[in-house]
Write a structure and sequence with these properties.
Blueprint (H helix, E strand, L loop, with lengths): L1 H18 L5 H10 L12 H11 L4 E5 L2 E4 H17 L7 E5 L4 H13 L2 E4 L6 H11 L3 E4 L13 E4 L4 H5 L15 E7 L7 E6 H14 L7 E4 L7 H10 L4 E4 L8 H10 L4 E5 H8 L11 E5 L14 E6 L9 E5 L13 E2 L3 E6 L12 E7 L5 E2 L3 H7 E3 L9 E11 L5 E6 L4 E3 L2 E3 L4
Parallel strand pairs: 1-10, 3-4, 3-5, 5-6, 9-10, 11-12, 12-13
Antiparallel strand pairs: 1-2, 7-8, 8-18, 13-14, 14-15, 16-17, 17-20, 19-20, 20-21, 22-23
Helix pairs in contact: 3-4, 4-5, 8-9, 10-11
């Protein structure tokens, strides 16, 4: 009986503690101000419509470059249109999933854009993945159509999907209309599903909408002053959500995207030389590669304006001699690539690693304790994310969606949610956020979240 009494007392004490506010009134106002990120953006035209608009406005401008190959906006748009028309004959329309298993190439971009123009949502599959992982993703997505290349067909598991090889089926695709297809897709429809590591060892498909992608695109264009004169890069695996960040903010603005060769995307010195030689103005490099590139000598003048990095913890600050700005970014796939960002300035005697910055437009960050209370500024807690970039949830996993995407405790708007990241962080006095690692056992390998038992 005394044990039972003690248990009840402890539970009452716990509940009492949970009801005690942790913040002063001034801290509440300060945290609310840091989350005041509202910025209007248009949801009327989705990414495929915006790319088509650029093709109409500047058809002869260079859209894509890979080695000696290049596509103008007219060529990219027409090839994607032909694929889209064919996909529509196979029943592809809004919220229909289409798998894409291709190596990085100009045709990979045609495939991604063609799926979106048909109204569908792309599900990228990395051909270098282990067969078991590919088989699980194909089975889980149940995409009725799969786009690939002839030499990759043997790597794919046996499945019911209709397979289109962009190379072997080129003659069939060439018979389709090169005009822009009609699509009823809206900002609320799915744009892609990216598979990330699951806590059970099963990958989980994150469902992102066109509206969330548009918020990323317009924030990026505003923040980095993207124009049609810019030259950007594509180097990540198509199965990594950063690929969409590398492509769509530029192809919707009339800029050019250059695909790095395989050697230059892993060796810092080759990467630096490639960026300089191709007069690249904005690039995203995963953290390890970015730190290697930052440590090198650079010419005093270069076309590069911004080196964007993310996907892992940034440990080093740039030297004062670098001729470009370094921007650190943070965001899980569940929040459409980027949640927070900061310009990292040269710092000689830093107390710790560079921060992950502040929320981007229309995104919010809350650092909460186990009772979902905001912790005082400077105190650690679990990082929760709200705002326009939140995923719809996990494909075929309503249980996990409910567990990770919780009702927003600080919003009066019906249906708003927060995503529990599993990351530990704290607010710094100036509103920047210090990343403190994982609460769970996930690790990151080259930017991918991986469970040890996977």
């Amino acid at each position: 009986m005394p044990c039972m009494t003690m248990k009840i007392v402890n539970e009452v004490q716990k509940q009492h503690n949970a009801d005690i506010p942790l913040l002063t009134e001034s801290e509440e106002h300060q945290l609310a101000a840091w989350n005041a990120t509202q910025q209007n953006y248009s949801r009327a035209a989705c990414v495929p419509h915006l790319v088509a608009g650029q093709a109409a406005a500047t058809p002869g401008a260079v859209a894509l470059v890979a080695g000696h190959q290049r596509f103008t906006y007219r060529e990219l748009n027409q090839r994607a249109n032909q694929l889209a028309h064919y996909l529509q004959t196979l029943g592809v329309r809004p919220n229909v999933l289409v798998g894409l298993c291709m190596e990085r190439s100009l045709d990979m971009v045609v495939g991604l854009l063609g799926i979106l123009k048909a109204g569908g949502a792309y599900v990228p599959l990395d051909p270098s993945y282990p067969p078991d992982r590919l088989a699980f993703m194909v089975e889980d997505a149940q995409a009725p159509v799969l786009i690939t290349q002839q030499h990759l067909v043997s790597r794919l598991p046996a499945q019911q999907a209709r397979v289109i090889c962009l190379d072997a089926d080129a003659a069939v695709l060439a018979q389709q209309s090169p005009s822009d297809p009609i699509s009823a897709v809206t900002a609320d429809d799915l744009v892609y599903i990216i598979y990330t590591s699951g806590s059970t060892g099963r990958p989980k498909g994150v469902q992102i909408t066109h509206g969330s992608l548009l918020n990323l695109v317009f924030w990026h264009q505003r923040t980095f002053k993207v124009t049609a004169a810019d030259r950007a890069t594509q180097l990540t695996s198509p199965a990594f959500d950063a690929t969409g960040w590398e492509l769509w903010p530029y192809l919707t603005m009339g800029a050019s995207v250059y695909l790095l060769d395989d050697d230059s995307r892993v060796a810092p010195a080759l990467c630096r030389d490639w960026l300089v030689d191709h007069a690249i103005t904005i690039t995203f490099l995963p953290t390890a590669l970015a730190e290697g590139v930052m440590a090198l000598e650079w010419p005093s003048t270069t076309a590069l304006r911004y080196l964007l990095t993310g996907a892992d913890t940034l440990h080093h600050y740039p030297s004062s001699g670098l001729p470009f700005a370094l921007v650190n970014n943070y965001g899980p796939t569940e929040a459409t690539v980027v949640t927070t960002y900061t310009l990292v300035l040269p710092t000689e005697h830093a107390d710790g690693s560079p921060s992950i910055g502040r929320p981007i437009d229309n995104m919010e960050v809350y650092i909460l304790d186990e009772h979902l209370r905001q912790v005082p500024i400077g105190e650690p807690g679990e990082l929760h994310i709200g705002g326009a970039g939140l995923a719809k949830g996990y494909l075929n996993r309503p249980d996990l969606t409910e567990e990770k995407f919780i009702p927003h405790p600080f919003s009066s708007e019906p249906g708003t949610r927060l995503y529990k990241t599993g990351d530990q962080a704290r607010f710094l006095p100036d509103g920047q956020i210090a990343f403190m690692g994982r609460i769970d056992h996930q690790i990151k390998i080259r930017g991918y979240r991986i469970e040890p038992n996977e």
